Structure formats: structure tokens, C-alpha cells
Amino acid sequence: MMKNINKIVGLMLLTSIVLTSCEKNIDLKPTDTISNETAIQSLDDLDRATIGAYSNLQYQQAFYANTIMADEARWGIDNLSRNFGLAYRWDFDSGSGDVTAAWGTMYNVIDRVNRALASAENIPANSTADVATKNRLRGELLAIRAMAHAELLRWFAPRYENDQLGVVIMLQTSILGKPQRSTFAQVMGQVNADFAQADALIPASFTDIFRITKPAVAALRARAALYAKDWTNAVTYANAAIAAKGTLATGADYAGIWTDANTSENYFQLRRNSNTGSVRTYWTDDNTDVFFSPSYKLIDSYNAVTDVRYNAFIFKDGTVAASRESWKVNKYSGQSTTNRFNNVKVIRTSEMYLILAEANAELNQLGTGATALNAVRKARITGYVDQTFATKDALIDAVMLERYKELAFEGHRFFDLRRRQLPVVRDDRDITIGAAVPKTLATTNRNYILPIPLAEKFANPEIQQNPGY
Asked: What's the pTM?
């Protein structure tokens, strides 16, 4: 009996030694990482953390997905199936990166923001100037978080209605958590709260359009209100954005926006300074092979002589062989023949006018809505004569057409059709190249709604998937 007890005591002592050793190992801090507390200790550190959040905003993902999933583009002759894409054929699932990548990207941005905001609480601000800087940086971070949550809603909410599933609201880092999706209304409530706080913290004197300024907050709030069908606030915020920066460019000035010659209509843009990852390579690569061309449906929507957007957005290359694709997307074609990249325009003045037109139409303010729509057309079309609209539906149809023309390749068309629960309908000429390219995506089709990524389901099996997946 004593022998057995000694064995048990010995085993207990051995276990104690092992556990003590493990505890010591667990307590060891890794030497190749920096904790949040150490990484962000000053206002300069907080500024770098804020820039880090901006740097991960891959907003151009919306450009690509919206363009190839809607009726803005057709499969280019040069594609040879290299970049055909399941998204273009509406034949994707939850493992398809083209339609799910924004989930990881935006939550990465939100995580960076949350870590910076948590550290900001303990950063000293000993002067009036330091307090103002700290407040402004916190405002920028809150605005980035609001924008990221609003973007996630555009991508992944089954429908843009208050009672529908939204996305996961993340206000702090949680590595081991298994968060669930909130409703569309709950997410929009958090978006509005973050934007409101950001607006109070960012001073009017801050004018760096490569970061979120006060006018940019108003513009982003107007867009969020549009998706929420909050027509009154859409009007309020669009008007505020226009009051701050409301001049519509014309002629050469407008064309110059797309080569970065001027920033006259840009509330907020993301800096790009390398040919690597430039937007133009979504459509045409460095070997001049055309993956996606402007659709004939889009081309025909412009007057090639009187509409400045035709040449700004569309290029007919007469130098290529008949066997090659000659129609090319000219928007984001590069700053020059050397710098073949462009800064990414996130939100512009013309979008505010079109939001104003649509929201006023919904509020049955047809005259005010028509005035906003006519302002965009007059700035773009030589000799344009103002138009009046007898009905709300007629004005909304005109706004949808103008958004198609004005915001082409800017990440809106597919989401716009979904906002209005309209099918995607391609022109017959736009489905002749490429195998099994479908003409219509009905609102009842599974792929009219985008899936939550398969990787997220693996990490969090309890998260609610969208219908059909």
C-alpha cells in the first residue's frame, strides 16, 4: 500500500513540475512580436496605425466584382479563359474569392481600427494641439470603421432591409469569439453612430483628401442612408457634402480626374504609387491583353460626340489586329504612359447629386430631384436641355440610367440593381464571346446574393450563411 502511495505522490510531484514548467513557458513573451501596448504609445504611433488602416482598404475589389457581375462589361476577345471568372458567369460558391474577398479585407481593416482605438485611450495629449490631433485621429478611425461595416452590408446583406441579416458588428478584437450576424438595422445603427462621432471629432480645417475629412464623412453618410432607404437623411447628408465641395467638373477638367490631373470632384481617394495592383489591370494587363471590355450596352448609353464620359471611359483602339480586342476601358488608364496607375476614387461629387435626385424622387419632390439630375447631365453633355419628370418612377428610372453611365467601373452597378431588386440583363451582343455566358441574372437566382466565405464558416461554424449556400 505504501509503495502505491509513493507512486501516486511521485506522479503528483512530476505533474507539478511539468505544469510549473509549462506555466513558465506560457508566461514567456515572444521576442519577434510587438504588443498593442508597446506598438502605439504616442500620437505619431497612432497616426501610423491610422495610415495602416487606410492602407488595407482594398476598395477596388468593389470595382471588379460590380463590373463583371453586372452589365458594364463583356468578356474580351484576348481573355482566352485566363481571367474568365466564375463571378462573370454567375456560377460561384462560398469558396470563390472574387465575391468573398471583401469579407476578410474589411474585417482586417476593422480589426486594425479597433486595436488603434483601444490603444488611443492611454496616449497622452498634453497640449491643446495634441488634444486636437488625438481627436481627429480617433475621428478618422471611427469613420473608417463605419465605412467598412457599411461596405460589408453592401456585399453580404441578403437584402437591404432593416429586418434582414446584416453582418457581424466588431467593436473590439476577439480572436476566440464566435460572433453572430446582427440585423441590417442594427449594423446601420452602429454605422451611423460611428459616423456621427467621427463628424464631431474631425475639424473642418482638415482637408487631406487621401484621408477621411468632414465633407467625406457627410458624403459617406449620404451613401449609407441611400442603402438604408433613409431618404430624408440621404438628402440632408448629400446636401451637406455638396455645400462643402459641390462643383461639378466639365470638359477637360472632368477627364482629368481619371488621370489624376485634378481632384475637383473627389471627397476621398486612396493613394496609389505603383503599377502593381493598379485598377486598369483588372481590365487590360501589361501585355495589352484585354480581359474585360466595356459592354456594348454601356457604350450605346453615351452620345459619343456630346458626352464627355464617352472618351473618358471608353477607348476604341484602331491599332490592334482584327483578331485582338479593340474596345478598352479607358477609366483608370494611368496617370501617364510611364505611371500606369491611378489613385482610387472612393466617393465623388456627382454621386451626391445622384443620391439627392433619387432620395428626392422617393420623397415625391420631383422638381428638386430633377434639378439635381439635370445638374449632372448638364456638366457632362454639351448642349443638354433640362428635363422634367411627370412621375416618381420616371425620375428614378432616369437616375438609375445616369448612375449606370456616370459611375461605371466604380463599384456600384451590381449593388444598385440589388438595391432596387432588379435583375441583371445583358445585351445579346455582350454574351457572344466566351462559353456559356448567361444573359440574365434573376432576383431569385442563388447568385443574386453573395455568400459568406467558406473560410469564415470553417472558423466560426455557427455563423449564419446566406440563403442558397
From this structure: 0.90
